[in-house]
Structures are given as structure tokens and as C-alpha cells.
UniProtKB/TrEMBL annotation:
Belongs to the TRAFAC class myosin-kinesin ATPase superfamily. Myosin family. This is Myosin motor domain-containing protein. It comes from Plutella xylostella. Pfam families: Myosin_head (PF00063). InterPro entries: Kinesin_motor_dom_sf, Myosin_head_motor_dom-like, P-loop_NTPase. Residues 764-786 are annotated as: Actin-binding. Residues 507-518 have a biased composition (Gly residues). Residues 136-891 form the Myosin motor domain. Signal peptide: none annotated. PROSITE patterns: MYOSIN_MOTOR.
Length: 937
């Protein structure tokens, strides 16, 4: 389905109309009938709404705003009482959260219709009960009474207990996670697209804008960990496929779904705040051309590598390990040296005893199938994963001269065998160190047990995150083969639309081109240029704000990311609207008091003395002088940070005081960071001696490492580093980055080395560069409670997030400021149909005339949202209320025009189909006059 078609069919029924406004004029009389009918429908709607305003449903008086557009009547009309799709299981919890409130009034309809008990609704307080509880106000700008945080939370609560988890603030969507679907594996295949009209609307808007303007679109999900970002992102992506990608039967969908299933198990883990937390941030870029999906790309941001070797107390390692232990067959276990080993026997997994997930085995089998779809050998990946687990059980004891000796060789030998290297080579890689720049290859110093344990953990992390990176690369690089169109064996993630288009164009022009190389390359070039300039629809699901105890470097990076996204939102929503009003001399009351988080971003990421720059400096100093004890380095780092930012309002003292800890006041709360592992995590290195063990058998990179590696997949994981070693003549006591980076040369104390945080910062910068060129669509995600309990609304938890995400400020701006501006020409182009006679020209005067005409035609406002506009130097400024009025009028006009065209078309068809009429009978001959009776005058 093309977007043009989609766009029109979503607004008007019947044949597509290029410019319904023009049709409207040329069929004036029919159009008048249509408008008349439409008005009658609207007036009927408002009568029903007026009637409903006298009825209190669940203690909430029904709002009016947003109920009428397009004649859409509110769902909860008398006789159509709201019925929760999921009966509120924890209904008593709501009154418990509202201790000072009287019990909710008995809804009237309950006496006559004794169906499921209505959910408890908030009452009491200044905004109690009716007018402002806002249960049926689907857009917060239409809330009645003073717009306060309390009113917003009450409205969300009232909606929540009516199973309405999505609420608009103008064009911004607020999504409230009610934890009604916690068993969802959060994969693309499991996303249920059909039941989320608000998310569907967002996708339609993004695709339509992209088609209309060619401009890239980005749907940006933000919120704390557990607020439902990943859930929503999967639903959105699924919907995007339905709209533009040809649906779930296409190869593109199957490939992407397989990639997400594989990555979900590898990148999600149970944390203190979310049993199913995504530890990999995603930006899913979907290239849409002419309304059809052309290509998809997943950008992954993997930070939480320490979890592989050291999950935080009370948390778990990545899901895949538990799923693997549950799903491997006996033979597979034996082959992987895992027989008799459960999570309790494997050190990296042995954290807290938890109930095993009954779905683990099934999910593992699905994971295996999806690996096959991506063309990645299952055995290769599980060999690496099993080796990681076995490495965790390799312990070190102090041998002669303080040198590290493995305590028990079985795991070391098993891990070596799985990785395809000789046990001796692995042992040497883990324990022997050449002093940097040792002149001769045989000069080696033994590692201490602590250094050997660090090397073991570094290897485990490197193996894991490089496997993830390889899978992502594979998923992104799937290319289409024309001959396998429509089959899973095709190597593609492009759309079937383009497959068929290309197939047909190839077929059509085959004769003339005759397969000539020049013709083909020209076509390829044209295609490349065309798609390089096309926009995309992106879905961003990055790390949510987290307050783990204690928080590590990864959490600091994740929280920096959340701060950056918050800043992006502030700039886009608040700052730019105020600045453009100022620039064009438009007074924009009210002055919004939003919280600017730039000071916090500066504290963390400023190049001059920010927390991350100071950490890099400390790492470089440690590398130059030989790393000292981790604890000492961490204390020195924290001491320097405190000294530099003594008076910074966002840097706090931890409670209780601790020499290796500091606290930061983030936009969503205070977080205490423990810097004990900061330096090690930031360096993120693996010794070159260890990497050399993976050189292919017969290759020179592992010179002297003892035979080389015979496991191609493992060699591939370190491919770039092994090449660098080969070029440099083998290991020389340097280090490589454990995570895959573009910088594959050995790190050198003399040369500036990249670090984990530098890489992350660069990638975040690049992401922002992409986002600033896109039109954003924001989804603000909230979690209903802190305990992941289904259908429990904790007011304090929600209020805290409402404050952090500046939802009240957004609603105030949308309700009474000028959040929208449009160039005169664009404005006239869109709203000419509203007042065609007034729209002469395309300048400010014509825009003002359209707006005045629209105001004159608009019915009396039923909502407190301001219906305001202003004309600036180059732009029309609109309040959200005004925009909605204009959109509604435009929709009515288009609808009327479409109905008019339909009627004309039907008449035409009817005339065509009517059976041919018999020729009119010949007139009967008049009888001849009888003679003599003829009168003459
Ligand atoms: N709209 C929803 N309806 C029902 N259940 C939901 C909804 N959104 C999320 N959930 C459930 O809530 C849990 C947390 O959601 P999710 O993992 O998507 O949050 P998140 O914001 O992505 O968290 P993180 O940042 O930690 O990855 C999941 O078990 C998910 O199935």
C-alpha cells in the first residue's frame, strides 16, 4: 500500500482525491448536502456529549475535548459503559495509595448493570470527582480547572483504571505501563499491533509526514527503566511493517523479527527495576521510499558488559545463559562441557537464587530457529557462550613467586577446547605478560592471580560483546538475491515492494539493456542516489534512567544518554518554541518554568574537567605510570572530581560518606555512583598476548602462541586485531580494546587510546546528529508502580516521573502557548481548504485571513485549551487548540468533498449499470374525425 493511498483512505472513504478542496467547489450543491449531514452528525455528537457531561462515570465527569473530531464519539456513552479489558486485579491498592480520600462514589449505572465492578476512581481533593479527574479526556490540554501536577496525575489515574493507558498532550503521547503483559518476550513477533490505536496513529503520522515531505522521522521513546519503551517500540515497528512494509509475511519482517529475538535474549537481563530490562539501546532505522519499506538497519548501543562477568547483587546475567541451560539437549550439554552444571554451579550466573522462568527452554528453541534464519551457525554461538560460562569457573591461586596458577584445570581445558585453542596457549595468554616493548619475544613476566582474573574476565566480556556485534552486523548486512524473492533463504532485508518493483523493471527493460554493465551500473547509481536522499522512519529505544545500588560506570553512561534525550526534548519542545516567538516578535505567554538539564550534562560530559574527561585523564595517567591498585586509583579519581566540582549544584556527597563514591543529581533523581571499577571498565582492555592465541592455525599473528586457533568463528571475532598483530610482528605486551571498535590497533601508553566512554560519547553524538535532522515524534513512557505489579497505580511513583519528564510543563505549553509554527506557504497549502475564499496568495495576510475565517466558523470552544494564533515575520504561530480546530475543519471539508465525489461516482455508476430502456412507444394514431360531426369555426 502506498502512503498516498493510505493517507487519503485514512481520512476519506472512497476513491483517492488529489485536492478535495477543489472538488468541493466544483460540486457545490452536493458538497453543501454533505456539509449539512456532517453538521447534523456533529450536533448529534455534541448533544450526546452534553448528555454525558451530566453523568459521572466512575466518579469522573467526562471531558469534551477531543471527543468530537471526525465525528468520533466517546467510547463510554450511556449504555456503552467502559468495561475493563483486563479486570483490575489489584483494585484495593488504589485506595491504599490515596489514604486521605473518601471512597469512590458508586457509579450510577452500576445499580442497573451489575457487570464487572468498575475500577476505583480517584475522588476528593480540590479537583475531585467530576470536572477535572479527566478520565475521559484523551488529551491533557482539554483538562478542566487549573492545570496542576495533581490534576495531571489524577487524569492519568482515572484513565488508567478505565484501561486507557495512552494519553495525548497535543502531538506528544504519554504511555502508562500497567504491567498487564509481563510475560511478553518483547520481540517483534510477539508484538500485538492491532490493539494500540494511539501507537498506530503515531506510525501513520510519521509515515505520512515522511511521504509528504521526504523528511526523516524519528519516534523517540523515553522514560525510566521499566516504563515500557521496548514494548512500545516493538508494537510501533510491527505497525510500521503493516503500514509500509507489506506486513509480517515479508522476508524483511522475518529477518528483522529473527534479529530482535536473537538480540533480545543476548541483550536483556533482570535488574532491580525491571525483570526484562534491555541492556542494549536500539535505534531502528527503517528507510521508507514512496510509502514502502526499502531497508532496515539496527544501530545497537551495548554498554553493560560488566554484567557478563559480574552482575550486580540482586540482579541477573543475560537471559540467554539461563535459557541455554534450560533448552540444551543432553547431547548438546555434553558437547559443550555443561553436563551437571546449573546456574548455581557457574560463577558468572550464581548471583541470586531465583525462580527459573518456565518459558526459558521454549525461548531458547525459538532463539535457535532465529539464528538459522539469520544464517548464523548455532553451534558457533553456543560454543562461545559455553566457553564464557566455563571461563568464569577458572580460578587462580598464588603459585611460586606470586605467579597465578589455575586452581583446577578442567574448566580451563574445557574452555580452551570450545574456543579451539590449545589449553597451554590460553593459559599463557591469561597469565604471561611481556613487559611493554620487550625487545625479545621470550621475555615474559608472570601475572598475579588478580591480573589473571582480570584477563579472564576481559576475555569473557570481549567474546560476548563481539558475538553480539557480529550478529548485529550480520542482521544489517543481509542482502537480497533476486532469484530467491519471497523465500527465507533469500539473503535480504529489503522490502518485497522493491523486490517486485526491481524484478518488474528488470523484466521490462531487459531487452533494451540486454544486461549491459553500463546500464546496470547506471541503474544502481540512480537507485543509490535516490535512496541516499530519501528519509527514514526511525524508532529510538535507548537506555532508561536507572538508579541501581551501587551504580557503575555503565549506569553513568546510560543516565548521560537519558539526560541527553531529555535535553533534546527540552530543546525541541520548550526552547525552540520560545526562541522562535522571540525572534519573530510574537509574545508567547506563558513563560514556561521548565527545568534545563544542561548543567548536569556539562558536569558529566564536559571536555574540560567533566566526570568522563577526568576519568579518561586518570586512565591515561595510570597507563603511563603503570596501573596501581584499583581502589587507590578510584579514590584518587573521586578526590579529583570532588576538588574540581566542589561547588557544582549537581554533584552531591554520597550518604553515607565514602571515599570511592559520589552522587549526581539527575533530572529524574539522585544517583550514587561507586567508582571502584570505573577505571577498569573505562579502559576496557584485553592483553594482546591473549588475543594472539586466537590467530588462525598457520597464521603469523599468534607467533609463538602455540599452534593457533582452529575455531573460525572465534578467530573472526578478533579479526581486525589479529591483522594488526600480524602487521606488527606479534604480541608485544600491549592491549586491545575488549569491545569491538573501529580502532583495532594495539593501545599504546604513548598514543591517545580510545576508551569505553569516549566511544559511547562519540556514538551518542552521531545519534544526535541524525536526530536533529529528523522530525521527532515523542512518546513519554511512565511506569505505573515500582514493583511491576499488574494494574496498580502508585501516585507517588507516577508523580515523580510526571515531574521528571516535564509533562505538566508540556501540557501548559500545548494548552496556552504557541508550540506550533508553520511557514506561511506551508500553512496555506495545508489549510486552504478551511477557508478557500480567504486564502488569496500565500503570505502572512492570506494566512491571517484563513485563520480569521476559521475562527468565525468554529463552534464555541468546549475545552479550556486556548485557541490562539499569531502572525510572525515568516511563520504562523498556533496554539495546540487552534491546530486541532484547523485540523478538524480540514477533515470535515475533506470528508464532505470525498462524500460528494463518492455520491457523484455512484450516480454515474448507477446510470451506467441501469438496463437499457426500451424506445418510447410510437404515438397512437389519432382516430380520423367522423364526417358531419366536425365543427368548424
Ligand atoms: N503497554 C504495556 N502493556 C502491558 N505490559 C507492558 C506494557 N509496556 C511494558 N509492559 C511490560 O512491562 C515490562 C517492562 O517493559 P519494558 O522492558 O518495555 O520497559 P523499558 O522501559 O524498555 O525498560 P528498560 O529501559 O529497562 O529496558 C515488560 O515485562 C513488559 O512486557
Amino acid at each position: 500500500m502506498s502512503v498516498g493511498c493510505l493517507h487519503v483512505s485514512s481520512e476519506v472513504a472512497g476513491p483517492p482525491v488529489d485536492d478535495p478542496a477543489e472538488a468541493c467547489e466544483s460540486h457545490a450543491s452536493s458538497s453543501n448536502e454533505a456539509v449539512h449531514l456532517q453538521r447534523r452528525l456533529l450536533s448529534l455528537g455534541s448533544e450526546l456529549v452534553t448528555l454525558r457531561n451530566h453523568l459521572h462515570v466512575g466518579g469522573a465527569q467526562l471531558g469534551v475535548g477531543g471527543a468530537l473530531p471526525g465525528g468520533a464519539l466517546p467510547a463510554a456513552l450511556p449504555g456503552r459503559k467502559p468495561q475493563p479489558a483486563v479486570p483490575p486485579r489489584a483494585a484495593p491498592a488504589a485506595p491504599a495509595q490515596l489514604p486521605q480520600q473518601p471512597p469512590p462514589p458508586e457509579p450510577r449505572w452500576r445499580n442497573t448493570l451489575p457487570l464487572p465492578a468498575p475500577p476505583p476512581a480517584p475522588t476528593g481533593g480540590a479537583n475531585s470527582g467530576g470536572a477535572n479527574s479527566g478520565g475521559d479526556v484523551d488529551d491533557l490540554i482539554h483538562l478542566r480547572g487549573p492545570l496542576t501536577e495533581d490534576a495531571v496525575v489524577r487524569a492519568l489515574q482515572a484513565r488508567f483504571y478505565h484501561n486507557k493507558f495512552y494519553t495525548w498532550i497535543g502531538p506528544i503521547l504519554v504511555s502508562l505501563n500497567g504491567y498487564t503483559d509481563t510475560s511478553n518476550p518483547l520481540t517483534l513477533s510477539a508484538a500485538r499491533a492491532a490493539c494500540r490505536p494511539e501507537l498506530a496513529r503515531l506510525v501513520h503520522d510519521a509515515v505520512r509526514h515522511q511521504a509528504d515531505t521526504g523528511y526523516p522521522q524519528a519516534i523517540i521513546l523515553s522514560g525510566v527503566s521499566g516504563s515500557g519503551k521496548t514494548y512500545a517500540s516493538m508494537v510501533l515497528l510491527r505497525r510500521l511493517f503493516d503500514v509500509a512494509g507489506g506486513g509480517p509475511e515479508t522476508d524483511a519482517f522475518k529477518h528483522l523479527a529473527a534479529a530482535f529475538t536473537v538480540l533480545r535474549s543476548l541483550g536483556a537481563a533482570a535488574t532491580a527495576s525491571n525483570e526484562n530490562s534491555s541492556r542494549i539501546g536500539h535505534f531502528i532505522e527503517v528507510q521508507v521510499t514512496d510509502g514502502a519499506l526499502y531497508r532496515t538497519k539496527i544501530h545497537c548501543y551495548f554498554l553493560d558488559q560488566s554484567r557478563v562477568v559480574r552482575p550486580l547483587p540482586g540482579e541477573r546475567n543475560y537471559h540467554i545463559f539461563y535459557q541455554m541451560l534450560a533448552g540444551l539437549s543432553a547431547d548438546e550439554r555434553a558437547a559443550l562441557h555443561l553436563e551437571g552444571r546449573g546456574a548455581g554451579e557457574l560463577r558468572y550466573l550464581a548471583a541470586p537464587p531465583r525462580r527459573a522462568d518456565p518459558d526459558d527452554a521454549a525461548r531458547f528453541h525459538a532463539w535457535k530457529t532465529c539464528l538459522a534464519i539469520l544464517g548464523i551457525p548455532f553451534l558457533d554461538v553456543v560454543r562461545v557462550l559455553a566457553a564464557v560460562l566455563l571461563l568464569g569457573n577458572v580460578q587462580w591461586a598464588e603459585g611460586a613467586g606470586g605467579a597465578a596458577e589455575p586452581a583446577g584445570d578442567a574448566e580451563l581445558a574445557a574452555a580452551a577446547q570450545l574456543l579451539g585453542v590449545a589449553p597451554g596457549a590460553l593459559l599463557r595468554g591469561l597469565t604471561a605478560r611481556r613487559p611493554p616493548r620487550a625487545a625479545r619475544a621470550h621475555v615474559r613476566a608472570p601475572a598475579t592471580p588478580a591480573a589473571a582474573a582480570a584477563a579472564r574476565d576481559a576475555l569473557a566480556k570481549a567474546l560476548y560483546c563481539r558475538t553480539v556485534a557480529t550478529i548485529v552486523r550480520r542482521a544489517n548486512s543481509l542482502k537480497r538475491l533476486g532469484s530467491t524473492l519471497g523465500t527465507l533463504s533469500s539473503d535480504s532485508n529489503e522490502s518485497v515492494h522493491n523486490q517486485s518493483r526491481r524484478a518488474s523493471s528488470a523484466g521490462g527493460s531487459g531487452g533494451s539493456r540486454g544486461g549491459g554493465a553500463a546500464g546496470k551500473s547506471m541503474a544502481a547509481l540512480n537507485d543509490a542516489v535516490r535512496h541516499a536522499t530519501d528519509g527514514f522512519v526511525g524508532i529510538l529505544d535507548m537506555f532508561g534512567f536507572e538508579d541501581a545500588a551501587p551504580s557503575r560506570l555503565e549506569h553513568l553512561c546510560a543516565n548521560l544518554c537519558a539526560e541527553t534525550m531529555q535535553h533534546f526534548y527540552n530543546t525541541h519542545v520548550f526552547k525552540s518554541s520560545a526562541e522562535s516567538c522571540r525572534e519573530e516578535g510574537v509574545s508567547c505567554a506563558p513563560e514556561l518554568d521548565y527545568v534545563d538539564n544542561v548543567p548536569c550534562i556539562d558536569l558529566v560530559s564536559s571536555l574540560r574537567g567533566g566526570l568522563l574527561a577526568a576519568l579518561d585523564a586518570e586512565c591515561a595517567a595510570g597507563a603511563a605510570g603503570g596501573a596501581g591498585a584499583a581502589g587507590g586509583e578510584a579514590e584518587r579519581y573521586v578526590g579529583r572530581v570532588r576538588a574540581t566540582h566542589r561547588a557544582h549544584p549537581r554533584l552531591l556527597e554520597p550518604r553515607p560518606a565514602h571515599p570511592r563514591r559520589f552522587a549526581v543529581r539527575h533530572y529524574a533523581g539522585d544517583v550514587t555512583y561507586d567508582a571502584s571499577d570505573f577505571l577498569e571498565a573505562n579502559r576496557d582492555t584485553v592483553p594482546d598476548e591473549l588475543v594472539a592465541a586466537f590467530a588462525r592455525r598457520g597464521g603469523s599473528g599468534g607467533a609463538g602462541a602455540g599452534g593457533g586457533c582452529e575455531f573460525g568463528f572465534a578467530t573472526h571475532l578478533f579479526g581486525a586485531e589479529l591483522k594488526a598483530l600480524e602487521a606488527g610482528g606479534g604480541a608485544r605486551g600491549a592491549h586491545f580494546r575488549a569491545s569491538p571498535t573501529s580502532h583495532a590497533a594495539p593501545l599504546d601508553a604513548a598514543a591517545p587510546a580510545s576508551t569505553l566512554t569516549q566511544d559511547f560519547h562519540t556514538r551518542l553524538d552521531n545519534l544526535l546528529r541524525t536526530l536533529v535532522h529528523a522530525r521527532p515524534h515523542f512518546v513519554r513512557c511512565l511506569r505505573a508502580n515500582a514493583t511491576e505489579a499488574p494494574m496498580v497505580f502508585e501516585r507517588q511513583t507516577v508523580a515523580k516521573q510526571v515531574r521528571a519528564l516535564q509533562i505538566l510543563e508540556t501540557a501548559t505549553l500545548m494548552a496556552s502557548g504557541y508550540p506550533h509554527r508553520m511557514r506561511f506557504r506551508a500553512f496555506i497549502g495545508r489549510y486552504r481548504a478551511v477557508a478557500r475564499a480567504a486564502a488569496a496568495g500565500d503570505g502572512g495576510e492570506a494566512a491571517a485571513a484563513v485563520l480569521q475565517a476559521a475562527e468565525a466558523q468554529a463552534p464555541a470552544p468546549a475545552s479550556p485549551a486556548a485557541v490562539r494564533w499569531a502572525i510572525g515575520k515568516r511563520h504562523v504561530f498556533l496554539s495546540e487548540g487552534m491546530r486541532q480546530v484547523l485540523e478538524r475543519m480540514r477533515r470535515v471539508r475533506r470528508q464532505a468533498a470525498a462524500e460528494c465525489i463518492q455520491a457523484a461516482w455512484r450516480r454515474h455508476r448507477q446510470r451506467q449499470r441501469a438496463p437499457p430502456q426500451a424506445p418510447p412507444p410510437a404515438p397512437r394514431p389519432r382516430p380520423a374525425p367522423i364526417g358531419k360531426t366536425c365543427f368548424t369555426l
